[in-house]
Sequence to fold (703 residues):
Amino acid sequence: MTARPLFPTQEIGSLAKPRWQLLGQRSEVLDDGAREELRSWDTRVGFGDEAPEVRDALLEGRPRDVSPEAVRDLGALFGLRFLETAGLDRVYDGEARRIEMYEYPIRQMRGFRFGGHVRSFDNKYYLKAAVVDEVRLDRPYHVDEFDFVKAHARAEPKLPITGPYTLADWSYNEYYLARQPGWKGRTARRSAQREFVVDLARRAIRPTLSALIEHGCRVLQIDEPAAGTHPDEASVVVEGFNAATEGLDAEFTMHICYSNYADLLPALLEAKRCRQWAWEFANRDSPGHDGYAVLKLLREYGDTREVGLGAVDVHRDRVEPPEMVADRVRRAAEYLGDPRRVWVNPDCGLRTRSLAVARAKLESVVAGAALARAEFESPRR
Amino acid sequence: MLVQTGLTGPFPRSEALVTATRDFDRGRTTDDAVEELFRRSEQEVVALERRLGFAGTTGGYLRWADLFRPFAETWEGFTVGPLTRWLETNTFYRQPVLLAPPGRTPGAIASRLPPPLVREPGSARVLLPGPYTFARMLDNRSGETEPALIHRLGRLLGEEVRELRGRGFETFLFSEPQLVVHPPEGPPAEAVVAGYAAVDAALAAGTSVVWTYGADARPAFPLLDRLPVSVVGVDLAETEVDQIPTGPARTGLGLGVVDPRTTLAEDPAEVARVVRAAQAHRRARSVWLGPGGPLDLLPWEPATRKLHVLPAVQRALSEGTA
Fold:
């Protein structure tokens, strides 16, 4: 394996689904815009020639000649090449086959019951399940999609998977709470949540991680966006992470975003097999407010793990210039006291941005990392 | 012990309403069809509240996008801002942005109340944001200090109460999670007391309820006990019952005994036991029982199921079976 460069780059999660994929997997004829989108991205990142019969069927208005699964495969190829040709060192498929990060994993398990929709905001809703029995895994998931990525990836693949704490936090805890004696107040709820998280980790996430590792997955990103929701439960996040990864041999990273990381430290540092913190920072970085200053805390606590540095904001269309990315990398390297620990990535998945904006931001990540690399490797330093 | 039951915040939309509002956003149904379903759903919630013997009706506040939106959309000085996380939940509200000192628009909030409440205001519970929670959860770019803003919002809400009293409404429920999530101290705390004094001055023999939730209420009790309100509510899923201090006899005790964070239905006998213990600590003459927080954190079916716990607890208390 070739040695990694200083400030290697990676993706974090999902990309917006191209319209041609959405129409194609519903067997609908592409409209002019979708056809042009497919043609132009094919020209730019080059993926259609790997499945020309699927691409051509879509372009020629024959969507029923190909299966929805073949269209999804083409979508996954597009995601891979999109990320690889942006210049990233570590990639996935843009989560081309996934719709969201909660319902799908829960539906691969037993012990849950979906009881209806909860309003997220305005007229937007999501399905939220209650755990009503012991958690059991039907079968490890994400394995087929990883096999596809592994077979086609040219850069190093990394698989993102929702962590046990987030799955538990986004569910109603019925079964484990019912087992608590007496009044179901604060103490009982915390205790029940801990049991739920650890059960999810041991019975569902760990077997899935194990299967993925058996299939050759070497880098796994455990997504815990809910970690910052209840800072006083940071130790439960850690317990879930440790239980999910216990005895497994792979490179694990933990992605958290939009949280006050200082509130999670030092408890989070007890995550034993976590090699990298992949956190969002750019969203909170602005003139007069150093969004990266919290990294100093890691140094103060003596933590020496890698940091996946969120260097571009996924909630704004404005594309950060490479110089801004380089400045952020420079600051992180200084705060951590070791440039070799810094990976560069977007804050989070780029699915909220158009593909054009996402691509521009990723190119800025790669160019900014190169700028910073040149500075650090320059003999003038 | 006088025991009342009822909703203390918004009720979830039914699956039919979920489908209709989604379809509306996607251009698959008409405004009239959605309006008709809202009307029917509000009447169904009122009917449910009556069937369960609740002391007041709310209609579920099904049309309100969030607690602040009617104000952010109609009061002067506001615009509607970005999506922001609602406390420690996976739900969001659009943060009101205050660009100038706020001013109310007469009649605007009355026009946003569920129509069944407007028809029978005497039995309605008017849901309002508490001045402290409102001030903390908006983006204040008006230049006003936090204490001045809290006090001003209290005065404006007092004017709102005065107008609604004139329209026949009697009971006003102020949603105040921030009073326990981030208990105020010093000038902001004094501004909270002054804000509720302004509400009290407008109340004219009406009933005012401050409902807290989302955190342990114990640290906030010294302030809560100073508020000139009829009832102070605490979330028993967060507050240990044996730590509720003795309070002023003038203030009714509100107890959030139905937890909207779990679909597990509470055991009425167990709840009755806890209510008795809380009442013994507090020595309140009246007890108001309700959900510990907004019930729209649950889907419609489990929320409805859990609401039935309230009359069962009331029965257990009156029968002395706890």
